[in-house]
């Protein structure tokens, strides 16, 4: 168990996942959490990151910083997604090693798995098939992050771990009308439709694909849990597949079911139509979370309850989302 006065750096603390990890650590009694804004520390600047680690004498790192977005953003800015994520990961992981930091947790994404991977997706499915085209650059960057952690563990004996979350949502999500993920995009769209007394809302795709969603505070709790697993339990030499661990609910729903639940939570009474000319993405993305359960953790927030929490946060902070 990590000492409560250990110096912990949370990279990406202003993002949805990073801010949730900070909340989780604070709730657990940690008193020495180090954060930096983007203007204070450019994580794509190798020299700046190295100097930060050498100066601050960090004990533990949560690597939650990343450039993220939905289907539209991934299709529109593929170069940005692969470049920025590779740079952030390489700089933090390598600099942590050079600064002799032994513990690091890297947060990846379920998109690392092949588009047509057997469902539910096990950790062993990594690199067994072709990726989903719409977010391939982002996925390749995340796979590189896993392999960076594995490689520093193998060559230098580091304890760098990786967790692969399913689709996340919650407080501090990105509610941009074009560049956000499906849940924040739907919450905003239905909210504005309700305010405008619109008679219908158009959702992208056929509604048939199935997706799994995890409330971000559950993800934060899982991250801290995995970081604190005993080294012997986690040792990749004992079990190679523990080089990364799936984090999710193990439960999925159709996009149609999600859309209808969002409409219910928001209180939209109009019609819902699906634009089948828009891309669906992968037909199904469900995580096999058996490994994480065997290590003593499972989710606690069911989807409708989480959507209500996320919607309330959006309503309370909507002045930030006028664009």
Automatic annotation (TrEMBL):
Return any one Pfam family short name. Epimerase
Name the EC number(s): 1.1.1.271
Site positions for Important for catalytic activity: 109, 111
GO biological process terms, semicolon-separated: 'de novo' GDP-L-fucose biosynthetic process
Q: Which CDD domains match?
A: GDP_FS_SDR_e
Where is each NAD-dependent epimerase/dehydratase domain found? 8-229
Instruction: Fetch the InterPro entries from UniProt.
Output: Epimerase_deHydtase (IPR001509), GDP_fucose/colitose_synth (IPR028614), NAD(P)-bd_dom_sf (IPR036291)
Q: Does the keyword Isomerase apply?
A: yes
Under the heading Gene3D superfamilies, the entry gives: NAD(P)-binding Rossmann-like Domain, UDP-galactose 4-epimerase, domain 1
UniProt record similarity statement: Belongs to the NAD(P)-dependent epimerase/dehydratase family. Fucose synthase subfamily.
Q: What is this protein called?
A: GDP-L-fucose synthase
């Amino acid at each position: 168990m990590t000492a409560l006065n250990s110096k912990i750096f949370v990279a990406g603390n202003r993002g949805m996942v990073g801010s949730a990890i900070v909340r989780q650590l604070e709730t657990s009694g940690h008193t020495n959490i180090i954060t930096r804004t983007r203007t204070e520390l450019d994580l794509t600047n190798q020299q700046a990151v190295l100097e930060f680690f050498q100066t601050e004498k960090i004990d533990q790192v949560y690597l939650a910083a990343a450039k993220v977005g939905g289907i539209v953003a991934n299709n529109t800015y593929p170069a940005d997604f692969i470049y920025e994520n590779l740079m952030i990961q390489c700089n933090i992981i390598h600099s942590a090693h050079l600064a002799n930091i032994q513990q690091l947790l890297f947060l990846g994404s379920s998109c690392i798995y092949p588009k047509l991977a057997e469902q539910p997706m096990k950790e062993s499915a990594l690199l067994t098939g072709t990726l989903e085209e719409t977010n391939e650059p982002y996925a390749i960057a995340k796979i590189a992050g896993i392999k960076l952690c594995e490689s520093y563990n193998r060559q230098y004996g580091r304890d760098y771990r990786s967790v692969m979350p399913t689709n996340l949502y919650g407080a501090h999500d990105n509610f941009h009308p074009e560049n956000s993920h499906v849940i924040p995009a739907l919450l905003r769209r239905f909210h504005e439709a309700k305010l405008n007394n619109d008679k219908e809302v158009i959702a992208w795709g056929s509604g048939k694909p199935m997706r799994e969603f995890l409330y971000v505070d559950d993800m934060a709790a899982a991250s801290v849990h995995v970081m604190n697993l005993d080294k012997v339990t986690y040792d990749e030499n004992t079990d190679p597949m523990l080089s990364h661990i799936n984090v999710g609910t193990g439960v999925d729903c159709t996009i149609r079911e999600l859309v209808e639940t969002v409409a219910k939570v928001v209180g939209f009474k109009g019609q819902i139509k699906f634009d089948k000319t828009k891309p669906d993405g992968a037909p199904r993305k469900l995580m096999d979370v058996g490994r994480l359960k065997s290590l003593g953790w499972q989710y606690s927030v069911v989807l409708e309850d989480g959507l209500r929490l996320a919607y309330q946060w959006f309503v309370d902070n909507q002045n930030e989302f006028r664009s």
